[in-house]
Amino acid sequence: MTLRALLSKPAVWWIVAGIAGVIFCFLATNDTVYVATSPPSFDYYVVLRKLYSVVAFAVVGVPAALARRAEQRSASPAVVGLIVAGYSAFIEVLQYFLDPPPEGLLWNTVDVACGFLGGVIAALAASRFNKSTKSM
Known about the structure:
By secondary structure, the protein is mainly α. The chain has helices spanning 3-7, 10-28, 31-36, 45-70, 77-98, 105-134.
């Protein structure tokens, strides 16, 4: 089996998305990681944390977008954004039940919006990836 044939299989991309999703979910619900990425001495740590989250959501979203493309289903920025926003909302619920972070509903909403933005970025990145692999 060639690399191109392997990368054309939706299951491969869903497995990659699942592994990335589990890793980032673990990191998002881990107190040690939360404390390490929230240094009170840095005035803009909240902005930095939101930036990390957008990047992490994009990392999870790219393989999800590629899986949808391989299935010949919509992988538009809006669709992938909604999928990743749903994943983000799942993390918010887990955080609430495992160890409620000192955030309120407004910040939970911002976090889900970061998930949506990460998904949009992922869809755009996946589109570029698809174009580059077709020229291989």
